[in-house]
Backbone:
């Protein structure tokens, strides 16, 4: 069992516990220890209840709890932060905070626009909360950064909205449009040439 | 690389490049075609070509009276899914954020539940359009694979978007990735099929209006 900034799956190359450019060459434990049962308690840091609860399960029942495909206990990683977020009703109503200190943010509006990764992050922060149930990041006014998910540092930026593309498209689209323009102009010139040739008397 | 990372990154980048190249290619390729000038004198009382063009662009937004009854369903249904698509694409907050990341401008989003309702109506309307296409004898004969492909790539983003928002069938991130990939398919096919009418309808109507009004034809 391990806790880390990001979890690993059976595919060691898919979800290394590292961030680009990974200068230390970090790899997931699953790539080093292949013949032992492995449980990932992911998070940065992992939730103590998830760690203690999993150990308790092992001791009480003598077997590994039900795991998801990233080998995380489903009891703690079965639902997304978004599923259980108290700001969720504002998401449904389309009411989004525009900055971390605006009135909407203070009134509990959804932090999706500010890059919250709650919809794609599986953890129990929103239900168990931190510091003895005092709060969790979203309740403190900051969007979820998705720290229990693989490669969360490298998935398009912590403050980039989830629905926004991650690739820079401006230059590529401009270049593609220029190529399209060249082909379009070329095709029309060819057509004009054909027409003028056809119009010439034999 | 996870499916969602691929969809939001390279797939979207490629699809937008194809869309931009294809749309500009087709627009310029058509607009720069040599035109055969109409050297006949304009009919007495005929409006200028520009007025004739603008008139037909607007007038063709609804059918002429003799065709009204025959085309009533197609007209209303088309309005339903066109307006529905516009509301879904430009009204849902995540879409507004996506467009803001492209264009740098944003506008207030509609309540998500309202957009979901509109999306369900739009999906039903698109299914009705397909049902009519396959059940109408003439329309079925006129339809080719490209028409069905255009329908499919238009409908898939609506269906997958609804599935993603309702967490239906798979995990949210998988459904979101499939939704983005379906939008990529739409963007790639868009310039090469009849979806290009989004740009070309004004030019085709305008050209017809300019030509016919010059000859005194009432359209």
Residues:
């Amino acid at each position: 069992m391990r806790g880390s900034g990001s979890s690993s799956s059976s595919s060691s190359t898919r979800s290394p516990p590292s961030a680009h450019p990974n200068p230390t060459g970090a790899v997931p434990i699953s790539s080093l220890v292949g013949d032992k049962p492995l449980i990932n308690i992911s998070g940065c840091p992992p939730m103590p209840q998830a760690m203690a609860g999993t150990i308790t399960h092992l001791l009480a029942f003598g077997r590994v709890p039900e795991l998801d495909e990233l080998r995380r206990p489903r009891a703690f990683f079965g639902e997304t932060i978004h599923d259980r977020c108290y700001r969720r009703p504002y998401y449904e109503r389309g009411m989004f905070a525009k900055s971390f200190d605006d009135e909407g943010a203070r009134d509990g509006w959804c932090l999706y626009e500010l890059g919250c990764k709650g919809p794609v992050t599986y953890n129990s922060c929103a239900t168990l909360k931190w510091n003895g149930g005092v709060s969790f990041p979203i309740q403190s006014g900051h969007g979820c950064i998705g720290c229990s998910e693989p490669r969360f540092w490298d998935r398009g930026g912590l403050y980039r909205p989830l629905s926004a593309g991650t690739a820079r498209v401006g230059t590529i689209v401009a270049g593609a449009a220029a190529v399209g323009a060249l082909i379009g102009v070329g095709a029309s010139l060819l057509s004009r040439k054909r027409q003028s040739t056809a119009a010439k008397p034999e | 690389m996870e499916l969602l990372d691929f969809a939001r990154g390279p797939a979207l980048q490629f699809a937008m490049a194809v869309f931009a190249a294809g749309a500009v290619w087709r627009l310029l390729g058509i607009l720069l075609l040599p035109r055969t000038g109409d050297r006949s004198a304009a009919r007495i009382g005929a409006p200028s070509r520009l007025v004739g063009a603008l008139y037909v662009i607007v007038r063709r937004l609804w059918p002429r009276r003799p065709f009204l009854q025959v085309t009533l369903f197609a007209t209303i249904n088309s309005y339903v899914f066109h307006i529905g698509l516009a509301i879904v694409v430009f009204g849902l907050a995540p879409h507004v954020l996506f467009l803001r990341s492209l264009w740098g401008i944003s506008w207030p989003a509609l309540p998500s539940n309202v957009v979901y309702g509109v999306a369900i109506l739009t999906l039903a309307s698109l299914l009705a359009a397909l049902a009519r296409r396959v059940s109408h004898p003439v329309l079925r004969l006129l339809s080719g694979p490209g028409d069905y492909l255009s329908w499919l790539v238009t409908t898939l983003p609506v269906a997958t978007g609804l599935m993603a928002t309702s967490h239906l069938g798979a995990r949210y991130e998988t459904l979101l990735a499939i939704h983005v990939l379906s939008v990529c398919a739409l963007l790639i096919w868009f310039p090469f099929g009849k979806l290009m009418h989004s740009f070309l309808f004004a030019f085709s109507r305008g050209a017809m209006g300019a030509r016919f009004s010059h000859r005194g034809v009432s359209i």
Remarks:
- The mean pLDDT of chain B is 92.
- The interface with chain A takes residues 2, 4-5, 8-10, 12-13, 16-18, 20-29, 31-34, 92-95, 97-98, 100-102, 109-115, 172-173, 176 of chain B (CB under 8 Å).
- Chain B has one domain: 3-22+46-214.
- The domain at 3-22+46-214 of chain B is CATH 1.20.950 (Fumarate Reductase Cytochrome B subunit).
